[in-house]
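cron nightly-structures :: item 1 of 1
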Amino acid sequence: MTTAPRHILIVVENLPVPLDRRVWLEATTLVQAGYEVSVICPMGRGWDKPFEVIDGVEIHRHPEPPEAHSGAMAYAKEYGHAIRHWFRLAAEIWAKKPFQVIQGCNPPDLIFLLARRYKRRGVSYLFDHHDVCPELFEAKFGKRGLLHRVMLWWERLTFATADVSIATNGSFRDIAIRRGGMAPEDVFVVRSAPKVDIFEPGPGDPAYRKGAGTVLGYVGVIGQQEGMDLLVAAVDHLVRDMGQGDVHAVIVGFGPHLEEVQRDVASRGLEAHFTFTGALYGADLLAALNVIDIGVSPDPKNPMNDISTMNKVMEYMTLEKPVVQFDLTEGRVSAGEASLYARANDPADFAAKIAELIAAPEARAEMGKRGRARVLDDLSWSHSVPHLLAAYDRVFAKRG
């Protein structure tokens, strides 16, 4: 516990708070530890109040920027909109109560611009490394080029500005040290994980089953790099080529490619095998996820996904669901024996792994139990809390 109030400003660009579950866990954990916490984030997804206080966290929201899908000008418009509001809201917060630390949550790797302004006033910068942006760009657009080099430059400037960095896994920590030039003692692994007292196994809502013998579940962003095309192809292969017609997929989430995925499902004549719920939260989310039999994570193998920890995998495991995913380095670190691993980006093999679990309900249940035990023993948010607080102890120690 801190002995006197210390004020932290958390800045996030791509999701509203408290919808960003990692940021929300961090913010509420810091409040519980005695810190004062303010958050700057965009509006959106029903979180449209410019200001509110939830669980002791002051949330300052700005109008949602247009999401860029391609082109330098589109990204300049999105990020320019966000940066303008970061500076405006930070000045308003500072005028009421100065903060000692800015925690910048990427993407993009541009919050260092705000941090450098306030470093002149003695404010420290803690970088919360959510995504590897150069690899994200490559995964999204399938190329490198000038913008990729710009992303690497922004990343270097971010790490150069940061006094301390927190990484979502060991692979990200290695990047902070190797590519970012940070001292090992200034980089802390703070894994993203659900709270086990909220994500509890239960019966779920049977209406989601649509009468199917086996229900697959997906939760997360429906975007360009999440592999939803591979999942639809895998279900198509299951139904048409493997005779597994008694299967239904529940897709929970939102994203820029939702309509494209729905068109793909329709063009294959698979509407009866898919339910798209949109975004779900709290008890509604658990009602959908608890009814599924197998959690699927179709993120393709690429330089970004291979070293990223997928929140959905952690959530399936916490709810005792066995997992099928492609063979990714950090995917194996997270799930271990609680998952089957398909050949990289091969929807037919992904379907075969699903069929293997469909045929073995006892093995499926045992995998689910292993997954939850793995979360409880090593990977739940309670295991990350000491690392988050240690990172802040390090920041304030460096401040002298």
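cron nightly-structures :: done
DSSP finds 14 helices and 14 strands in the chain.
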